[in-house]
Write a structure and sequence with these properties.
Elements lengths: L38 H15 L6 H30 L2 H12 L2 E2 L9 H16 L4 E7 L6 H21 L7 E7 L10 H7 L1 E8 L1
Helix pairs in contact: 1-2, 4-5
Length: 211
């Protein structure tokens, strides 16, 4: 028989777990089985029991309150999961890949514009990044060291940018996402006047123009 004192009581299940042969369940001190649920999920189950136990007409208000709390506990983990996915998309790993895309350059031998083996690996990594982010667009800039005339180096920088463009499009990247430009010797990475500086300045460089 229902009494007012039963309002906040929870009907306990018999110890021994689920009746149809459940595996690995351990009874709690109050006689309920956890079935491997986390502590948070067990609290949700207990609130469900409370809502189920409130049967009388005068308990409808309390029952609605318990159901609202129960719904909130179920929704919060889903919202937290969505937030973590968003954070992962814009997290440090993506930023590192983007930094490599911008900072790893395609280098060339003196007075050459053929793609070396080490340069091919750099372009392949850039192609993989562009494949992963299809909205990304980039400009390929061709550069030279200071030796040679300005006119010659401008043409050589253009050939280097075009060679890089041809290689990355051969890997499946849509050419419409790319543009090329030559700066010749105008924008050195290294202002030095030695072999090490010149080697750094003979390059094709990627710059993101749209994301």
């Amino acid at each position: 028989m229902y009494t007012p004192e039963d309002r906040y009581s929870v009907a306990k299940r018999p110890a021994g777990g689920i009746p149809h042969g459940g595996h690995g369940s351990q009874p709690e001190p109050d006689g309920r089985a956890t079935f491997g649920f986390s502590r948070a999920k067990q609290k949700v189950l207990k609130l469900g029991d409370i809502a189920f136990a409130l049967k009388s007409k005068e308990d409808l208000g309390m029952k609605k309150l318990v159901l609202v709390v129960l719904a909130g506990l179920l929704i919060m983990p889903l919202a937290a999961g969505c937030g973590s996915k968003k954070q992962q998309y814009g997290g440090s790993e993506v930023e590192a890949l983007k930094a490599a895309f911008l900072g790893d350059h395609v280098y060339f031998d003196f007075d050459r514009y053929n793609i070396r083996q080490d340069a091919a690996a750099v372009i392949q990594a850039k192609a993989a990044f562009m494949t992963q982010y299809p909205g990304l667009r980039a400009e390929i800039q061709g550069h030279c060291d200071e030796r040679g005339t300005e006119v010659y180096n401008m043409a050589l920088g253009d050939r280097r940018a075009r060679a890089t463009y041809n290689y990355i499009t051969s890997l499946g990247i849509d050419g419409g996402r790319l543009s090329t430009v030559s700066y010749g010797e105008e924008r050195p990475l290294d202002p030095g006047h030695n072999e090490a500086a010149w080697a750094r300045n003979r390059r094709a460089q990627f710059v993101i123009t749209a994301e």
